């Protein structure tokens, strides 16, 4: 075998071995160009801009220069609510008091009983005397009438004596009902700094909360 044939046979073997070596070896990374090096250096050295942190803005509550649309004009004022205690008006009076104190800061609201007229009050004092008198006669018996100047008991005494317990209970309950009626005035009067601004006795109704707030506000604004 001559030399040329040996070269022809060894060349494919050499190429095959070089391909196998290339499969198991990695090529070195390309050299960075001068421009790439400049860009990397500029990226690393460029200072980071820190944006100033803005504080959170919350909506501010408006100052209460106006309360109920009328301002702080209630400071130092006095509201008197005179109502009928025996008529169970206290709940309504307390509700109006809380409303006025919240709508007009600094205002003093005073609750008081509105007495009935003088004749009714005098009659209400007589009712307990009559009650105890009838009950005493029922319990004392027939012998009390001669001491009172009666020769014989009146006919109504025997009807009361027939049902003693029922008569005593009826006298007590009926007397309390009459006394409560005489002591009630049915009043719900509102005074602002001594001046009447609403009267249930004249209007024959209770005031509404918004109505009373507006009436008191207009009165305070006119001072």
From TrEMBL:
It comes from the Eukaryota. Residues 1-17 form the signal peptide. The keyword Protease does not apply. Keywords: Redox-active center, Signal. GO terms for biological process: cell redox homeostasis. InterPro entries: Selenoprotein_Rdx-typ, Selenoprotein_T, Thioredoxin-like_sf. Gene3D superfamilies: Glutaredoxin. One of its GO terms (molecular function) is thioredoxin-disulfide reductase (NADPH) activity. One of its GO terms (cellular component) is endoplasmic reticulum membrane. Pfam families: Rdx. This is SelT-like protein. It comes from Salix udensis.
């Amino acid at each position: 075998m001559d030399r040329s044939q040996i070269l022809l046979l060894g060349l494919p073997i050499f190429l095959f071995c070089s391909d196998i070596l290339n499969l198991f070896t990695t090529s070195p990374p390309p050299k960075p160009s001068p421009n790439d090096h400049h860009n990397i250096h500029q990226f690393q050295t460029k200072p980071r801009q820190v944006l100033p942190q803005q504080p959170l803005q919350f909506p501010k509550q408006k100052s209460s220069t106006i309360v109920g649309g009328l301002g702080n004009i209630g400071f130092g004022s006095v509201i008197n609510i005179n109502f009928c205690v025996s008529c169970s008006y206290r709940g309504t009076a307390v509700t109006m008091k809380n409303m006025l104190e919240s709508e007009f800061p600094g205002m003093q609201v005073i609750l008081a009983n509105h007495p009935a007229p003088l004749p009714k009050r005098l009659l209400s004092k007589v009712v307990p005397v009559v009650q105890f008198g009838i009950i005493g006669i029922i319990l004392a018996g027939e012998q009390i009438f001669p001491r009172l100047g009666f020769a014989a008991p009146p006919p109504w005494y025997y009807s009361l004596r027939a049902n003693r317990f029922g008569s005593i209970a009826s006298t007590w309950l009926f007397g309390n009902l009459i006394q409560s009626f005489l002591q009630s005035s049915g009043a719900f009067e509102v005074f602002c700094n001594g001046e009447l601004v609403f009267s249930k006795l004249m209007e024959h109704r209770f005031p509404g909360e918004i109505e009373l707030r507006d009436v008191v506000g207009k009165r305070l604004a006119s001072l």
